[in-house]
Amino acid sequence: MGNYIRFDWAMKRLLRNKADHVVLEGFLSVIFKRQIKIAKILESEGNQDFEDQKFNRVDFLAEDEQGELMLFEIQNSHELDYFHRMAYGTSKVIADYLSKGEPYRNLKKVYSINIVYFTLGQGKGYAYHGTVNFVNMSDATDVLQLTDGQKKAFHIETVSQIFPEYFLFRVNNFDQLATSSIEEWISFLKTGEIPDTYTAQGLPEAREILRVDKLNEEDRKAYNRYIEILRFNRSVMDSSRIEGRIEGMEMGMAQGLEEGKAEGAKNEKLSTAKRMKAEGLDINLIAKITQLPINEIEQL
Q1: Rounded distance between C-alpha atoms, residue 81 and residue 64, angstroms
Q2: Measured between alpha carbons, how far is 35 from 212 in angstroms, rounded to an integer?
Q3: What is the rounded (10 degree) CA torsion for 81, 254, 287, 4?
Q4: Separation of alpha carbons 112 and 122, rounded Å
Q5: Residue 155: burial class (beta carbons within 10 Å; 0-12, 13-18, 19+)
Q6: Cβ within 8 Å of residue 153, ≥6 positions away
């Protein structure tokens, strides 16, 4: 399981505490290359109680001291339309935090920070940044600028500062020696380990705050359950791919893929349910997580 708590679980259970904001503030400061202080945690789906949420993703909304909004999205399993969800997420935050009848100039700046553990899009890198600019369709060097009056009124320098910005970290694509602060953070997100040599802002504090052995009994059980479910989800996907390939060679790729997925998923569910039952987890909870009938679980 590793010595340190996974960052996504920590954001659900630990990093909402003001005393522990230093970890999240460190990560944000490394991303933005300026000091970020979290003023408050705002209501979002991911800020609700842990047991009521899907296990394969986390969202988390914070406001910094400048009134800018930071929306975190962490996705553990493949989602084909994730780019669409990124767009929807920022749109919803903008709509939620602009009161009816309030002037548009009061629109809050939104940053969308996305951490994904699956292959998303095509690209060579692991870290991407997206902004909105208006480019002259006849001259690509001509980018629309604010007037001096707009700069003075809105206290910004560029049009892009009005629109949402997106940061995307494809964690599984990181496969190199960490030589910078952001690389140390991505390495931690991927491996769950923080070597003594890592000094990026927020990681020294994470080394203490996110230690597994500091969890109380209730949190330890919840964390173990979370890790087990993540393993289950990944194992189902891996098993489905393997079984699909094997059956596909024997029965034809299309039919084999579907039957292989079903067989692999069912076997993995049974195996996971058996382990959970051995750990003493409630049968109803096991059935909810694995989607297996209670009578099948009782027979294991």
Answers
A1: 29
A2: 28
A3: -50
A4: 20
A5: exposed
A6: 105
CB-side exposure of 235: number of CA atoms within 13 Å?
17
Predicted confidence (pLDDT) per residue in 121-158, tens digit: 999 999 999 999 999 999 999 999 999 999 999 999 99
Here the tokens at position 115 are 């951490």
Distance between alpha carbon 236 and the CA centroid of its chain, in Å?
A: 20
- According to DSSP, residue 6 is labeled -
Residue 186 near residue 178 (C-beta atoms within 8 A):
yes
What mean pLDDT is predicted for residues 156-163? 96
Least confident of 170-184, 208-222, 249-263, 279-293: 249-263
Mean pLDDT in the chain?
A: 84
What is the domain partition of the chain in residue ranges? 7-213, 215-298
User: Is the CB of residue 233 less than 8 Å from the CB of residue 55?
Assistant: yes
Tokens linked to 72: 């975190």
d(CA 68, CA 48): 21
The pair of structure tokens assigned to 195 is 């070597």
Pairing mode, if any, of strands 135-136 and 127-130? Answer: unpaired
Query: In the predicted model, is pLDDT for residue 50 greater than 50?
Result: no
User: The tokens of 69 are what?
Assistant: 């909004």
Q: Name the DSSP class of 22.
A: H
Strand, helix or coil for residue 77: coil
Write out the two tokens for 91: 């749109």
Query: Which residue reads 């952001």 in tokens?
Result: 182
Strands, E assignment, the chain: 38-42, 57-64, 69-75, 110-116, 127-130, 135-136, 139-143, 165-170
Q: Is the pTM of this model over 0.85?
A: no
Integer-rounded Cα radius of gyration of the chain: 22
